């Protein structure tokens, strides 16, 4: 049997598992998409240990837990749901864990991890009984479109900030960054490379742009060459199972408030991200996301595994949009991403060349692609337009996907009722209004 026959058999096997021809995609395109997704989100391998390390956790163990939970999440998403969506520990949850729970509330990281473990169990049960699926199906089409566009603007803002084009400003909150900073020009270079390639409709534009920007950074010395190539993954021992051994701490009522917040934030972060990515990939059918139950179960099980190993809740990653933008349509994209996370455990020093300035152009360009969802919102009907608008601007302006969703969900039922369209509002939307009021109160945003 020659090599071409082997390649053909391999492609046929992958086609049967991931239905590539049905989704009008190829192995090459999915591999490129998975690579691009990994490159866009590889930063979490270093950011997560840094944030959780501030809570007193062992950074080496957190690095390994981050990689393993991402591998588990991506594999589950690939084989359970067949979606081109990657999963890894979420940035919002780890920041809340460290700065709000451990440092502000004075709860030890061991007890806080017990809260994460309990929230993960509840999360899995909600997915198992299809409660999450029912909730997501009840969200109006216009709000789903607004979520997609809002996430697009949010990640573009993250890219602009990471690339140094937008910075903090005391008088106006945000302002333009200094163009005298050399690394900022890496971002500008990457934006133009990707934009020109996109305009010329060249496949893999985003990935090519990332590679070109990295090479420029290395050649000019703006990105340092790694000091070593191979490094064994650190031990999980300092964090493994700590949440389980500290379950007795759940007798404290304060811990249940922590669990509630983890549960709600993780629920709507992932729901909003899944909907936005599905909208971008053209997966949505009749305002519903096929196999969403399996996707949510993949997310829940990876969160449970992560809590055991020693990391904060996992979530569907908005950076998956970079892979989707260049053609990722099936679970093969997520599988390739998982493989790269596995390799990253051995070659972690090489990941240091993928700086914020390298990934920033990809996020900005993807924001352009995702914001196109705005065109299908019913802007001529104010009772729909206002909640959609608040959802869109709420995400980047509060730097939080959940808050943007909250703004939309708090106003939609009320304005629809005022417009005489109360019967069109699903009762679940009223329940969600109450849930978000409780969440904002617990977070001390409401008096």
Can you give a write-up of this model?
- This protein has two domains: 17-162 and 228-355, no CATH class; 377-447, no CATH class.
- The chain is built from 19 helices and four strands.
- It is globular.
- By secondary structure, the chain is mostly helical.
- The strands form two sheets. The chain has a two-stranded antiparallel sheet with strand order 1-4.
- Helix 2 (27-41) crosses helix 15 (331-344) and helix 9 (182-199) runs antiparallel to helix 10 (205-220).
- A hairpin with a 3-residue loop joins strand 2 and strand 3 (173-176).
- Helices cover 67% and strands 3% of the residues.
| Biggest sheet layout | 2 strands, antiparallel
Biggest sheet strand order reads 1-4
Order of helices and strands: HHHHEHHHHEEHHHHHEHHHHHH
Estimated radius of gyration: 21 Å
What is the mean pLDDT? 88
CA distance, first residue to last residue: 72 Å
Please estimate the helix content: 55-70%
- Coarse morphology: globular
DSSP summary, beta strand count:
4
Low-confidence spans: 1-6
As a percent range, the share of strand residues is: under 5%
Number of domains: 2
Structural class computed from helices and strand pairing: mainly alpha
Helical stretch tally: 19
């Amino acid at each position: 049997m020659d090599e071409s026959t082997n390649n053909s058999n391999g492609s046929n096997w992958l086609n049967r598992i991931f239905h590539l021809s049905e989704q009008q995609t190829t192995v090459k395109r999915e591999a490129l998409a998975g690579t691009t997704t990994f490159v866009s989100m590889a930063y979490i391998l270093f950011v997560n240990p840094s944030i959780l390390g501030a809570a007193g956790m062992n950074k080496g163990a957190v690095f390994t837990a981050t990689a393993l939970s991402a591998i588990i999440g991506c594999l589950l998403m690939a084989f359970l749901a067949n979606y081109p969506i990657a999963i890894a520990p979420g940035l919002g949850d780890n920041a809340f864990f460290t700065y709000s729970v451990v440092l502000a509330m004075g709860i030890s990281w061991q007890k806080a991890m017990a809260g994460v473990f309990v929230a993960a169990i509840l999360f899995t049960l909600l997915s198992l009984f299809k409660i999450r699926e029912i909730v997501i199906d009840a969200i109006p089409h216009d709000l789903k479109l607004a979520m997609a566009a809002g996430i697009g603007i949010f990640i573009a803002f993250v890219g602009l900030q990471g690339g140094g084009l937008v910075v903090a400003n005391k008088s106006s909150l945000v302002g333009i960054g200094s163009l005298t900073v050399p690394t900022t020009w890496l971002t500008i270079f990457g934006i133009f490379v990707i934009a020109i390639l996109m305009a010329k409709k060249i496949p893999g534009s985003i990935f090519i742009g990332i590679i070109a920007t990295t090479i420029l950074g290395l050649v000019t010395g703006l990105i340092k060459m790694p000091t070593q190539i191979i490094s064994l993954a650190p031990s999980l021992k300092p964090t493994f199972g700590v949440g389980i051994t500290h379950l007795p701490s759940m007798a404290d009522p304060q811990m249940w408030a922590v669990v509630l917040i983890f549960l709600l934030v993780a629920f709507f972060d992932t729901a909003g991200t899944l909907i936005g990515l599905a909208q971008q990939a053209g997966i949505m059918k009749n305002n519903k996301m096929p196999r969403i139950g399996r996707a949510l179960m993949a997310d829940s099980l990876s969160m449970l595994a992560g809590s055991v190993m020693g990391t904060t809740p996992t979530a569907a990653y908005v950076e998956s949009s970079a892979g989707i933008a260049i053609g990722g349509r099936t679970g093969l994209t997520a599988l390739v991403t998982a493989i790269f996370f596995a390799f990253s455990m051995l070659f972690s020093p090489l990941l240091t060349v993928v700086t914020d300035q390298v990934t920033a152009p990809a996020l900005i360009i993807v924001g352009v692609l995702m914001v196109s969802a705005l065109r299908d919102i019913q802007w001529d009907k104010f009772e729909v337009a206002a909640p959609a608008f608040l959802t869109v601007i709420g995400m980047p302006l509060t730097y939080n996907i959940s808050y943007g969703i909250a703004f939309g969900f708090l106003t939609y039922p009320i304005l629809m009722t005022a417009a005489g369209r109360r019967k069109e509002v699903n009762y679940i939307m009223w329940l969600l209004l109450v849930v978000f009021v409780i969440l904002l109160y617990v977070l001390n945003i409401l008096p």
